Amino acid sequence: MIHRVSAAEPRLLTLAVRRFGGGGTGAAAFTATPGTIAFVAADGDDVQGWCWGYLLPRPDGTSMLYLHNLEVAPQHRRRGVGRGLLSAFLQAGVRAGARTMFLITGEHNTAARRLYESMGAGLATQGPTVNYWFVLPATE
User: Fold this and answer.
1) How far apart are the first and last CA of the chain?
2) Partners of residue 67 on adjacent β-strands
3) Residue 76: per-residue pLDDT
4) Taking the alpha carbons of 10, 7, 5, 26 in that order, is the dihedral positive or negative?
5) pLDDT tens digits in sequence order for the chain, 140 residues long
6) Nearest to 71 by CA among 52, 87, 94
7) How many angstroms separate the Cα of 22 from the Cα of each of 112, 121, 126?
8) CA angle (99 as vertex; 97, 100 as ends), nearest 5
């Protein structure tokens, strides 16, 4: 079953972070932050998959979704869990007024690419892109 995680009930997100993210205690703070969206696929406390991202306002008055992570446990793959999570994320974005969604995945992640393309996604048309990451200094 797919569950939208809320600030009032971040327990499933905490379980998903432990399963896929390696620990951490930021689920409550994440869900309390405006613009965050997270879903967990679970059967009771058995977390099968999760996805999370953001609703981003744009200066032109529209908004768009950014899917930062979608992951399904290996034993639950190819059973519709990823499709269900992605569908729930997209629907939440539509209800919030988003007009587009973007994500980044590895070129060789064929399973993910097949899922995204089967649900109507197309490759970005701006040409070859390069991703950069900045590691920011810690504050004192």
Assistant:
1) 42
2) 53, 103
3) 96
4) negative
5) 999 999 888 889 999 999 998 777 889 899 999 999 999 999 998 999 999 999 999 999 999 999 999 999 999 999 999 999 999 999 999 999 999 999 998 888 999 999 999 998 988 877 667 777 787 888 87
6) 52
7) 21, 29, 35
8) 130
Sheet holding 63-72, edge to edge: 2-4, 36-43, 46-57, 63-72, 98-103
Answer yes or no: are the C-beta atoms of 1 and 43 closer than 8 Å: yes
Report the candidate in 5, 8, 14, 2 with the shortest Cα–Cα distance to residue 48: 2
Domains and CATH numbers, the chain: 2-118 (3.40.630.30)
| Look-up of token digits 């997209």 | 90
Spatial contact of 3 and 13, defined as CB atoms under 8 Å apart: no
The model's pTM: 0.88
